[in-house]
């Protein structure tokens, strides 16, 4: 399918004139782009326009009937059409790219939904190491090699972003470092992709997050976190690995898992990707399986099934949203780009579905979000959001 045919088909789709065969053609057209170089026939600007058109069509169909009756009354055609719409929004969100140019007036309207003065880059590798004596070391500026020592424990940096703790073997290490704690913390607008703890457990830190841990795991393996972290734990049945956060304890039973515990969120979420964990809150306990998540909120533990790919998209360089409330979306944007968000109107009922690369500058991410009909005005490190 060439550019002209694709644009024509998109316009027919937007006007509600696509047959079921044409809807299938759109899906087949997407599926034909198995090789990355083929998808480059769509520019970033065209993607934003197409996404806006599709989103408007979805909203139009959903607004045809009261909310409480939508799922019951949708015809098969409407369900298929909406599903195809969301399919396109989500799929193209991963792959927007390079070559066409457009002077389309709707494109100009789409781009005007984001008012830009000074653009901001995405989060980069940026973190501080706080030693047991209070000394603070900038990890992104540290040279590869030895960064610090705590007794016989060496803190080393490999390449640009791997921080590892090398445990000494002497008795002095055990005695001197049993109560020595280090903290690695990322600011908003920062991240750290590779921390190897003294036992070999690997940790990834998202923006605005921290982990505090003993430099020697001789007595216990217990860490404290804030924000969001992903753990790949080295299992030891005689010495369980424990994560403590906001009064909750997560015990590894041979595991990879994600913990989301930002202070401005309503709950602490523990999501299991591999193995098993036990989550405890007071006298409540929940053992979960891969694909399950425990929400700790209002002194209760709630277990549910989740989409793992959506939960861990952040560590793969994506924002991934599925009917996510705009205020939740913007909290993630705030942390990643280190900006403040100001809402001029109530947007509690608005949601967003789609994928956005975390490697984009702020203005491009906001253009993707403008498919919701919101207008974003960038004022330095502040974003004003209005309808």
Automatic annotation (TrEMBL):
<dbReference type="Pfam" id="PF04773">
    <property type="entry name" value="FecR"/>
</dbReference>
<dbReference type="InterPro" id="IPR012373">
    <property type="entry name" value="Ferrdict_sens_TM"/>
</dbReference>
<dbReference type="InterPro" id="IPR032508">
    <property type="entry name" value="FecR_C"/>
</dbReference>
<keyword id="KW-0472">Membrane</keyword>
<keyword id="KW-0812">Transmembrane</keyword>
<dbReference type="InterPro" id="IPR006860">
    <property type="entry name" value="FecR"/>
</dbReference>
<protein>
    <submittedName>
        <fullName>FecR domain-containing protein</fullName>
    </submittedName>
</protein>
<feature type="domain" description="FecR protein">
    <location>
        <begin position="183"/>
        <end position="278"/>
    </location>
</feature>
<dbReference type="Pfam" id="PF16344">
    <property type="entry name" value="FecR_C"/>
</dbReference>
<dbReference type="GO" id="GO:0016989">
    <property type="term" value="F:sigma factor antagonist activity"/>
</dbReference>
<feature type="domain" description="Protein FecR C-terminal">
    <location>
        <begin position="319"/>
        <end position="385"/>
    </location>
</feature>
<keyword id="KW-1133">Transmembrane helix</keyword>
<feature type="transmembrane region" description="Helical">
    <location>
        <begin position="74"/>
        <end position="98"/>
    </location>
</feature>
